[in-house]
């Protein structure tokens, strides 16, 4: 038990260090997991001499991945994509399998082995493609949807291979057609069963779970449903991933979709990392060293042919050229199910273990190249097409602020920035938004919003947004320190520009005003003012007096809204103790050292404490006169930071 524990700890250390290093050199985490697996595998430190022992646990990562993918789809959406799934997907699979099988027959491989290896080469990696496009935020564009359609058919096509390999190895005479027909009937039954459960049973289950308002139960139910669906299809000889995808697809139409996705993500990401680690463990360095002269060129040739065949298959269905080439670059690797087929074929004696090692090595090498190809798939496709009339509707041209004047620059295009932008549109006031979130910028550009990608603190970005000609800049993100830097950069470009800053709390009002902000709007205090206005209005206070009161509070930097009485449940987290302001009532008993002294004489301002009120004989005086002499039984109300309030109380009661 202790040995297994240490193995897992060492593996996690390797994974953490690898991901951190690869992130530092701007490479995707998938490569880091492959690298960690290579180190931990039998070829180097042999942390896990038998990587196949971890295969089932790692495959659960694929189950969760496909469950998450299913949440992005719905049955109507899948039916709308049927021409791509069963059209382009089928043609791509058959063409790729046929081409590589013919090549292998030319090199004197037997027909069964040629068909198996051809099928392996035709498959692509659902795991690596979905994970990478999700990280890049391009899951829902047309190019990726085309690639996913082909992947869905490939996952279905795995089933005949898993059935055919044992039959090829068996000495008994078995009708291959009858076995496939039985598998087809089982597949139809299982799919119909899952769709029925997903439509009538799962919504009721999650409705009852949601009513319990127990987060743990919701998470456990989500995991259980994904595993049960995967287990059901696996029990009928189908892919576990197919069952998880169907379960996710049925729940994708429910109102619980986003919560389900949030619940499953941590388990999915951890187990997917484990999956890629196990893939890295299967890289046979001895086979790579012995046959590397052929493996590397062979992988490059294979990937090139697969790109061309995907383009040819999509051309038959009149797909957009840029989408087609980009999908080809995403799908040109060897898939994880190819490893399953290779292992099964080697176990059944259909192919040799050495050939299986070579094929798995080719798959790992192709997977290592894939993240770069996916990231650059669109630019590579555009270079190949090179025809200006092919304009991708999913990627609009970069926004240009040329010709704009007297507009508003919105730094940060989150919920607040977008809300402001909508109202500016209603008043026909031009604006330019700047945001550093690539997914948000991509979605906004698709919707035709005037937005630029970049860090607003950089002068080049502000210049590109036309800040020199703008009349107002709005900073919407709640990072006061970064806002100070942004104000400084903006003032250097346009010293006359008005700068409005939105923050959540008013902890750093002074520093922002000192940096040059024209207006600082603390969200919490402004929300309180709006609530107070409503209360006063319904209490019968004239609107003119309410407006006067609100203006006075804003002018006084929300002085009357500062501080609160702490309670038993008040939490003071690290880093906030110097930002909070408490109001505290101190009862002056007969032993208080401050009795007989005036408020002015006590000089509480040196302790950076404000006296808010004095309560005597049941009557309270707000902002009492400083000459007031304190008496036994008085209640002095003070305000300040928690530690200062404590010091002031000790001073008033004990002296010193």
TrEMBL record:
Transmembrane regions: 6-23, 30-48, 54-71, 83-107, 113-134, 146-169, 175-197, 217-235, 294-313, 351-374
Which keywords fit this entry according to its UniProt record?
A: Antiport, Ion transport, Membrane, Potassium, Potassium transport, Transmembrane, Transmembrane helix, Transport
Gene3D superfamilies, from UniProt?
1.20.1530.20, NAD(P)-binding Rossmann-like Domain, Regulator of K+ conductance, C-terminal domain
Q: How does it sit in the membrane?
A: Multi-pass membrane protein
Cross-referenced PROSITE patterns = RCK_C (PS51202), RCK_N (PS51201)
Q: Does the keyword Protein biosynthesis apply?
A: no
What residue stretch is flagged as signal peptide? none
Please list the residue ranges annotated as the RCK N-terminal domain: 405-522
Q: Which PANTHER family match?
A: K(+) EFFLUX ANTIPORTER 3, CHLOROPLASTIC
The name this protein goes by in its record? Potassium transporter
* Provenance organism: Alteromonas ponticola
Which taxonomic lineage is given here?
Bacteria, Pseudomonadati, Pseudomonadota, Gammaproteobacteria, Alteromonadales
């Amino acid at each position: 038990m202790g040995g297994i524990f240490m193995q897992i700890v060492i593996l996690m250390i390797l994974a953490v260090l690898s991901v951190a290093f690869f992130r530092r050199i701007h490479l995707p985490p998938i490569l880091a997991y492959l690298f960690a697996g290579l180190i931990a595998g039998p070829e180097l430190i042999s942390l896990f001499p038998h990587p196949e022992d971890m295969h089932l646990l790692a495959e659960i990562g694929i189950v969760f991945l496909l469950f998450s993918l299913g949440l992005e789809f719905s049955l109507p959406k899948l039916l709308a994509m049927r021409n791509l799934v069963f059209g382009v997907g089928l043609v791509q699979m058959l063409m790729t399998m046929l081409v590589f099988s013919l090549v292998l027959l030319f090199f004197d491989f037997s027909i069964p082995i040629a068909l198996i290896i051809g099928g392996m080469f035709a498959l692509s990696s659902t795991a690596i493609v979905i994970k990478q496009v999700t990280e890049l935020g391009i899951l829902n564009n047309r190019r990726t949807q085309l690639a996913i359609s082909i992947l869905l058919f490939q996952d279905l096509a795995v089933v005949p291979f898993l059935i055919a390999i044992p039959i090829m190895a068996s000495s008994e005479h078995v009708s291959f057609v009858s076995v496939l027909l039985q598998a087809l009937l089982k597949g139809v039954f299982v799919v119909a069963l899952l769709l029925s459960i997903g439509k009538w049973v799962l919504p009721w289950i999650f409705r009852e779970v949601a009513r319990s308002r127990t987060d743990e139960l919701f998470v456990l139910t989500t995991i259980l449903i994904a595993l049960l669906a995967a287990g059901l299809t696996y029990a009928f000889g189908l892919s576990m991933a197919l069952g998880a995808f169907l379960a996710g697809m049925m729940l994708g139409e429910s109102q619980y979709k986003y919560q389900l996705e949030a619940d499953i993500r941590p388990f999915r990401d951890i187990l997917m990392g484990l999956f890629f680690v196990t893939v890295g463990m299967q890289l046979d360095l001895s086979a790579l060293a012995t046959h590397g002269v052929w493996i590397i060129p062979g992988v490059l040739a294979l990937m090139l042919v697969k790109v061309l065949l995907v383009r040819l298959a999509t051309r038959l269905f009149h797909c957009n050229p840029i989408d087609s080439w980009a999908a080809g670059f995403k799908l040109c690797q060897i898939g994880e199910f190819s490893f399953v087929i290779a292992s099964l074929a080697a176990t059944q004696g259909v192919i040799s273990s050495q050939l299986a090692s070579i094929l798995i090595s080719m798959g790992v090498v192709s997977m290592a190249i894939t993240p770069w190809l996916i990231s650059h798939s669109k630019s590579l496709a555009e270079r190949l097409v090179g025809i200006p009339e092919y304009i991708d509707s999913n990627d609009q041209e970069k926004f240009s602020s040329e010709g704009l004047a007297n507009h508003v620059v919105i730094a940060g295009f989150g919920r607040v920035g977008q809300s402001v932008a909508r109202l500016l549109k209603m008043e026909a006031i031009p604006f330019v938004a700047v945001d550093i979130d690539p997914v948000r910028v991509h979605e906004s550009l698709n919707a035709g919003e005037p937005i630029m990608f970049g860090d607003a603190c950089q002068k080049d970005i502000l210049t590109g947004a036309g800040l020199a000609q703008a009349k107002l800049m709005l900073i919407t993100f709640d990072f006061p320190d970064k806002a100070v830097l942004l104000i400084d950069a903006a003032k250097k470009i346009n010293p006359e520009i008005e700068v409005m800053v939105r923050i959540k709390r008013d902890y750093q009002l002074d520093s922002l005003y000192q940096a040059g902000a024209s207006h600082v709007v603390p969200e919490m205090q402004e929300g309180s003012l709006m609530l107070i206005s409503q209360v006063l209005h319904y209490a019968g206070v004239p609107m003119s007096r309410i407006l006067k009161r609100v203006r006075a509070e804003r002018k006084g930097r929300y002085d009357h809204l500062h501080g609160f009485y702490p309670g038993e449940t008040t939490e003071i987290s690290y880093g906030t103790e110097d930002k909070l302001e408490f109001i505290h009532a101190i009862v002056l008993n007969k032993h208080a050292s401050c009795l007989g002294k005036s408020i002015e004489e006590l000089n509480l301002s040196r302790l950076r404490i404000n006296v808010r009120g004095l309560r005597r004989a049941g009557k309270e005086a707000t902002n009492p006169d400083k000459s007031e002499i304190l008496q036994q039984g008085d209640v002095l109300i003070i305000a300040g930071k928690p530690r200062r309030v404590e010091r002031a109380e000790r001073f008033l009661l004990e002296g010193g």
